[in-house]
């Protein structure tokens, strides 16, 4: 006997209702999930190696957290494809330059860098069809030059001098971009001249440069606000989401100032109560600028300083001028850190957490401990683990080098902090 249509209709109705309820539930969950990710989803979708830049894990640094009663987290920027936080900056600088027409595919990106930004540019530039020319101070760790050359970049090592000197590595990098542009223009003019001569039936010999000549672009990481925007649009939102907005402080050292500027400004826009600080290495003037409003103390006045005022083995942090990027920072204070504290911290983290970090990362963790001491237990503090110790084998991680500079680590625990 055929089944009654009524039960069939009921079953069908119930099925439709359940399906509708399922779809609505999925959409609601998707909408909720989307709301939780809107900050990072605003970032442009990228493919290939550049698509792997950013969204780095935020890890609890157990030893420091347990020692202070705070929750101290490190953003593991050394897990970026190029091995450092500067990957974010390199991608943003190149993308904005290509969009604005300042850089063309096949062109050369030039930069003056102590290492990490250069490595990041050399890593991602080929993904955009570009080349990389780097000018680096010759006191930077030799392995950074070796990495750059292995990545296919042209490396120019120069002696360290004041930024006001025409041969400061940043100024030379700026000149190299200008030279590349002049070369490209000359090549175009010569090609045009050859076409005209051929049209007139005259065959002349003109020097034709080998390869493509697409001009140059000076990345200018210190003054280019794409640096700041990389962190305002990327690092800051990631930290906010990864902590669920439940953080009390952020701290990092500054070189170009892009990281502290972008992150601090974003976090304070989300919650003005979040405290943002810098930790400054020996020889840098940023501590004085933030705490006293002047770049130098009376003892550090311009006329009394050495030609190369930096007296630190840390790399990529510390500066004696205000950059356009740093001007964007919103800071509540600053702390000083010493070389021996950075060295000891790096060994402590390796022994107790298995974290093999570079000099700037170690200094940032020194800063995180300063903030924990200031705020007291029960607070959440975030810092940046910029790069790993793999780029610091010849200096910061070299026992012989450290011994020569009186920086041999001897601490058993954290007693090295604030050592007089």
Outline of the structure:
This protein is α/β, with parallel strands linked by helices and 420 residues long. It is built from twelve helices and ten strands.
CATH topology of the largest domain, which one? Rossmann fold
Task: Calculate Rg over CA atoms.
Answer: 26 Å
Proportion of helical residues = 40-55%
Second-tier CATH architecture of the largest domain: 3-Layer(aba) Sandwich
Topology as H/E string? HEHEHEHEHEHEHEHEHEHHEH
- Rough outline: globular
Q: What structural class do helix, strand and pairing data support? A: alpha/beta
Number of helices: 12
Structural notes for this entry:
It is a single chain. This protein has 420 residues and is an alpha/beta fold. The protein folds into two domains: 48-79 and 235-404, Rossmann fold, CATH 3.40.50; 86-218, Rossmann fold (3-Layer(aba) Sandwich). 44% of the residues lie in helices and 12% in strands. The chain has helices at 5-41, 62-68, 86-100, 116-124, 142-150, 169-199, 226-242, 258-270, 286-292, 339-353, 359-375, 399-404; strands spanning 58-60, 71-76, 108-112, 131-137, 154-158, 216-218, 249-252, 275-280, 333-336, 380-385. A six-stranded mixed β-sheet has the order 1-2-10-7-8-9, sandwiched between helices. It has a four-stranded parallel β-sheet with strand order 5-4-3-6, with helices on both faces. The N and C termini lie far apart (97 Å).
């Amino acid at each position: 006997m055929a089944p009654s249509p009524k039960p069939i209709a009921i079953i069908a109705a119930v099925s439709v209702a359940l399906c509708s309820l399922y779809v609505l539930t999925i959409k609601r969950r998707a909408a909720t999930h989307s709301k939780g990710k809107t900050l990072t989803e605003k970032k442009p979708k990228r493919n290939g190696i550049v698509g792997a830049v950013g969204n780095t894990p935020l890890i609890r640094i157990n030893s420091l957290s347990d020692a202070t009663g705070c929750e101290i987290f490190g953003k593991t920027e050394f897990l970026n494809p190029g091995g450092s936080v500067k990957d974010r900056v390199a991608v943003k600088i190149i993308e904005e330059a290509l969009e604005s027409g300042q850089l063309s595919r096949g062109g050369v990106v030039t930069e003056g860098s102590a290492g990490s930004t250069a490595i990041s540019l050399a890593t991602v530039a080929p993904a955009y069809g570009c080349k990389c020319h780097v000018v680096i101070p010759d006191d930077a760790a030799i392995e950074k030059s070796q990495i750059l050359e292995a990545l296919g970049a042209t490396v120019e090592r120069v002696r360290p001098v004041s930024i006001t000197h025409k041969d400061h590595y940043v100024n030379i990098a700026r000149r190299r971009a200008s030279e590349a542009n002049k070369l490209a223009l000359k090549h175009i003019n010569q090609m045009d001249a050859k076409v005209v001569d051929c049209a007139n039936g005259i065959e002349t010999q003109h020097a034709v440069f080998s390869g493509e000549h697409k001009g140059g672009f000076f990345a200018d990481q210190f003054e280019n606000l794409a640096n700041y925007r990389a962190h305002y649009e990327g690092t800051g939102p990631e930290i906010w989401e990864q902590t669920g907005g439940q953080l009390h402080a952020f701290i990092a050292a500054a070189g170009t100032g892009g990281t502290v500027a972008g992150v601090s400004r974003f976090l304070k826009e989300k919650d003005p109560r979040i405290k943002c600080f810098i930790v400054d290495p020996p020889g840098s003037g940023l501590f004085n600028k933030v705490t006293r409003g002047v770049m130098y103390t009376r003892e550090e006045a311009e006329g009394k300083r050495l030609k190369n005022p930096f007296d630190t083995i840390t790399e990529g942090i510390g500066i004696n001028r205000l950059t356009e990027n740093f001007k964007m920072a919103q800071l509540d204070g600053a702390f000083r850190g010493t070389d021996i504290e950075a060295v000891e911290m790096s060994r402590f983290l390796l022994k107790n957490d298995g974290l093999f970090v570079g000099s700037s990362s170690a200094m940032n963790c020194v800063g995180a401990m300063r903030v924990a001491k200031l705020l007291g237990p029960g607070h959440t503090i975030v810092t940046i683990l910029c790069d790993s110790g793999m780029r610091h084998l010849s200096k910061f991680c070299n026992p012989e080098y450290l011994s020569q500079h009186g920086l041999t680590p001897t601490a058993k625990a954290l007693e090295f902090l604030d050592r007089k």
